Amino acid sequence: xxxxxxxxxxxxxxxxxxxxxxxxxxxxxxxxxxxxxxxxxxxxxxxxxxxxxxxxxxxxxxxxxxxxxxxxxxxxxxxxxxxxxxxxxxxxxxxxxxxxxxxxxxxxxxxxxxxxxxxxxxxxxxxxxxxxxxxxxxxxxxxxxxxxxxxxxxxxxxxxxxxxxxxxxxxxxxxxxxxxxxxxxxxxxxxxxxxxxxxxxxxxxxxxxxxxxxxxxxxxxxxxxxxxxxxxxxxxxxxxxxxxxxxxxxx
Length: 251
What we know:
- By secondary structure, the chain is an alpha/beta fold.
- The chain has one domain: Creatininase (Rossmann fold, 3-Layer(aba) Sandwich).
- It is 44% helix and 9% strand.
- It has 10 helices and 5 strands.
- Strands 1-3-2-4-5 form a 5-stranded parallel beta sheet, sandwiched between helices.
């Protein structure tokens, strides 16, 4: 079964779809600094890849997969000092997702899955809150990549916490949008093993505070297309498995 892009469908296409088995997948990311070598839209590129491939897996499992237009603007406080970053309040994100879920429910779509790889703590808090709220008629599924059981399935760099605009993210962008990667710049970047997750726990509020004055953490020069493709498969599997488990639980 195909994966449908909601924005490319007509309203009659949606009307005639099997909405009882429909899963709307919302890619969530940010417009924010990702080092001197990756585009501001890196998180959305990753989220869309996760949504597309996750939708294919759900389609194979008998669901009607609807990939929604991405949510580009989220909380991005850690990158706020870098030109080009556009952040919004976390509560704005939570309320927007709630309203999206309500609109889907009005049309008989009962599952909204969030594909997110933007790990700003305020954004994560907003998505956790949105998925934890009671939405009449719709179930919101959110895979939190920072949960230990989830993170353990991702790459070595990701597990160090030094993974913003490093090998983990750079690899996925190389696989999805290679023309947007400044590979010559990335090849010259020194590793930055400072753990962003540790810095957040210690009270850091910006990338610079956390030890990333150029808005990158990890090993960007080591990124590969092959690792990016492998990572997309893992992210997609996590999303699809979470949706299936949620639907089975609520049935």
